[in-house]
Amino acid sequence: MKACLALLVLAVLPLHAETAKKKAAPSKPKTAATTSTPKAKADLAVKKVAKLDGKVAKPATESAPTEGAEAGKKSPHGQPAVIATTDLLDFETLPEDRRKLIEGAITVAKESPWLPYKFGGSSPADGGFDCSGAMYFVMNKAGLKPPRTSADQYLWLKEAGRLHETPSAPLTLDHPSLAALKPGDLLFWEGTYTPSDGRAVNITHVAIYLGREKKDKRPVMINATDGRSYRGKQANGYGVYDFYLPKEGSRAKFAGYGTPPGIAEMK
């Protein structure tokens, strides 16, 4: 009997020791079963917000500026389109000085491999143009003497009594305030970006109106920009783009147009 008891004790001792070991071992922390809840999923999504150059990416609803110091940096857009003066409706009937201005503007784009948007650029030697730099270069080639910035070019026309302001922000090109628009006129926008140079007026973009294309009467312009489009394709740099007016509620507004001093006005 004593022998049986001894054998029973020996059998129980290892089992008791294993149980004690399990009790003494630190338990693993429980994983909170919250990742499947809607709130947890939302929190996880916030942590995975996309980043660009170390900064939180902008929401898709906030479009990038087409002009200004930030435009053209790491642009995803390719080279802009170029057309010929023979593609323009009634180009041959324009006065010689307007034909010279428009032809010179198109030639600059044709003769340059690619002039991307470059804030502060006013010559192909700078490696690109900003909007007013392109107009400054083109108008100088035509023998005109414009000021350098888009705001000053706007005031240049205004002081010469040649500016057609559009305070009503027209939404279509057949608006009465655009009745005097002619090929070769300068086009002005405000609010395409936020300037920081203390300019007297909030004009932030300028282009030259080329007129309408023969094949479908599409209104077109030439300018330097990043993200505007021609026939549905966005581009970056100096070239030809569709001329359209900002949508209602847009931060940008079409501010006016007019013939640059040195070019004869048309009736």
The CATH topology of the domain at 85-258 turns out to be: endopeptidase fold (from Nostoc punctiforme)
Helix content: 25-40%
Radius of gyration: 33 Å
The sequence of SSEs as H and E is: HHEEHEEHHEEEEEE
Number of helices, where a helix is a run of at least 4 consecutive DSSP H or I residues: 5
Strand content: 15-25%
Unreliable spans: 1-25, 27-36, 38-62
Q: Average pLDDT value?
A: 82
How would you sum up this structure, described in words?
The protein has 5 helices and 10 strands; from the N terminus they run ααββαββααββββββ. By secondary structure, it is α+β, with helices and mostly antiparallel strands. It has a domain of 174 residues: endopeptidase fold (from Nostoc punctiforme) (Alpha-Beta Complex), CATH 3.90.1720.10. It has a 6-stranded antiparallel β-sheet. A two-stranded antiparallel ribbon has the order 1-2. A two-stranded antiparallel ribbon has the order 3-4. Strand 3 and strand 4 form a beta hairpin. The longest helix has 23 residues. It starts with a helix and ends in a 9-residue tail after the last strand.
